[in-house]
Amino acid sequence: MELTMNNWEAIYKPISNHLDDNASFQDEHGVGIMFETYGVELEWVKAQPNKNVWTYMDGDEGTWLTAGYHVVNRIGYLVTEVPWENQDTVVSVSSDSDEEN
Fold first, then answer.
1. Fewest CB atoms within 10 Å of the CB: 20, 34, 36, 49?
2. C-beta of residue 93 within 8 angstroms of C-beta of residue 10
């Protein structure tokens, strides 16, 4: 299943990064919601239920969020109030075509 960022935020309700006041990846309210891939933030993410964790990833065709905790091509992690049900859920954040325009 593929979602837009707006749909994803409305459905899954990402939580703010309470460990870093300058966290990246701002939500619609300008609050940072991305958790880093190291240190205290990573330990906190790993302590959350996997079904509430999303991995922000980078690849040849752009960036996206994918359900669950992943290591390869990760940029960071997002954690949501509402757990995902389908491991194949993908959220397109940007694509190479977005950057060309």
1. 49
2. no
